[in-house]
Amino acid sequence: MNTKPNRRLPLAAAALLASALLLTACGSGGGHDAHNAAPATSGTTSTKAYNAADVAFAQGMIPHHRQALEMAELAAGRAASPEVKQLAAAIRAAQDPEIATMSGWLTGWGEQVPPLGAAGAHAGHGGAGTAGMMTEAEMASLKDATGAAFDTAFLKLMVAHHTGALEMAKAEQSKGGYAPAKELAGAVISGQSAEIEQMNKLLG
């Protein structure tokens, strides 16, 4: 007599449990909310890792460094002073790896790496360009110079160029959010400040 009720009880309990689970899922907003929760968290973490200032720093400093390398490469065959040649070699050694590092950041962030030849777009007109970038006329004049005349022109132009880099690096340190970028900005400030001091001494 009692076997039938006993058989119904587990079935009823299972039905109640299934209903409770279904209601819980519906009450939580369904599968879409659950799916969106994880990306929202990862998106927040990614946003905290870097910001627009970090992107602007990398995209601006890459062509800036490329122009410095172009200037430094001219010194090998045109400079008269061993100190200028050594300084140019130090600039190449420091800034070439930094270009690779910043390019890697931009690629990882899904941002555009400035194409080769983009340096001219950042230069001003008639005098030192934005962030100390040289104009096409200034670069052409430097390429035409040799010996002591090259040394003087190179040092003056590179002081202006470095000064622009310091401004960009200081902006990154104050506004950036990506720790490695802020560390690189600190290295730029330290290294290029010392080089500016050295170049001013060479200029006398």
What is the N-to-C succession of helices and strands? Answer: HHHHHHH
C-alpha termini separation: 113 Å
Q: Per CATH, what is the topology of the largest domain?
A: Ferritin
What's the pLDDT, averaged over the residues? Answer: 80
Would you kindly provide a written description of the structure presented here, covering whatever features stand out?
- The protein has helices spanning 3-27, 30-49, 52-78, 82-109, 136-144, 147-175, 179-203.
- By secondary structure, the chain is mainly α.
- It has two domains: 3-44; 50-203, Ferritin (Up-down Bundle).
Main traits of this protein?
204 residues, mainly alpha, Ferritin, 2 domains, 7 helices
How would you concisely characterize the structure shown here?
With 204 residues, this protein is mostly helical.
Q: Would you spell out the secondary-structure blueprint of this structure?
A:
Elements: H1 3-27, H2 30-49, H3 52-78, H4 82-109, H5 136-144, H6 147-175, H7 179-203
Helix pairs in contact: 3-4, 3-6, 4-7, 5-6, 6-7
